[in-house]
Design a protein that fits this description.
Number of helices: 6
Helix content: 55-70%
Order of helices and strands: HHHHHH
Number of strands: 0
Pfam families: Cytochrom_C_asm (PF01578)
GO molecular function, one term: heme transmembrane transporter activity
Strand content: under 5%
Function: Required for the export of heme to the periplasm for the biogenesis of c-type cytochromes.
Protein name: Heme exporter protein C
Family: Belongs to the CcmC/CycZ/HelC family.
CATH topology: Four Helix Bundle (Hemerythrin (Met), subunit A)
Amino acid sequence: MAALPEGPGPANDSPMSIWPKSIWDVANPARFMRLSGALLPWVSAAAALALGGGLVWGFFFTPDDYQQGSTVKIIYIHVPAATLAINVYAFMGIMSLIWLIRRHHVSALAAKAAAPIGAGMTLAAIVTGALWGQPMWGTWWAWDPRLTAFLIMLFFYAGYIALWAAIEDPDAAADLTAVLCLVGSVFAIVSRYAVIFWAQGLHQGASLSMDRETNVADVFWRPLVLSLAGFFLLFLALLLLRTRTEIRLRRARAIRLAAGEGAEPPGEAA
């Protein structure tokens, strides 16, 4: 089992030494810990400002919709949560692919760290979608293509998390969960393009797009973009925090094994 060093990393301790020269430098656990430790306070502060600003602006300083009334303001949670649900799974797919090809432990642990966040976003999207859709559709749930794809994606998130918990060997768990994640990526794609593939679904078109004619009105669009930025920054802050925790847990496990629980001393991380 490979250890994940958390030491000082490069000998150069200047402030600029924490910044990677290439994206693959971040795969070094020691460098990742240094870089994430420097970024985390700034990302957290930016997330709080953007998310707080977007939600306050949207909920208290925008008018009710002439058709949907005040329920339209659910958009400031529903759309960012749904967007993150899809993009977090895409991120996990990329990290899983990197793990399978390059065997970088940080990528596997980042995918593991992202899964509960993505599952929470998916659940939030489903719940807020039900709250938003019930007054418009007359039902809390419909087997609409996008809704169904999101429900299946939630099951893949849950299966991914459960598989990590069920397998004791971290490398074996990373292998199997990576395969499961890549298989489930098709539902992330379907969730993203379901409205385009099946235009007859109940779900409306995209609220944010490059086509201004299909976008929400500017009075809703601006705070929605700020809220979306806040959600992405919140995800990044939680991802950095959780990945740092996973690295520490992995390193502690390797130390315990090296101390006499039946394994040889660990080698260097990939």
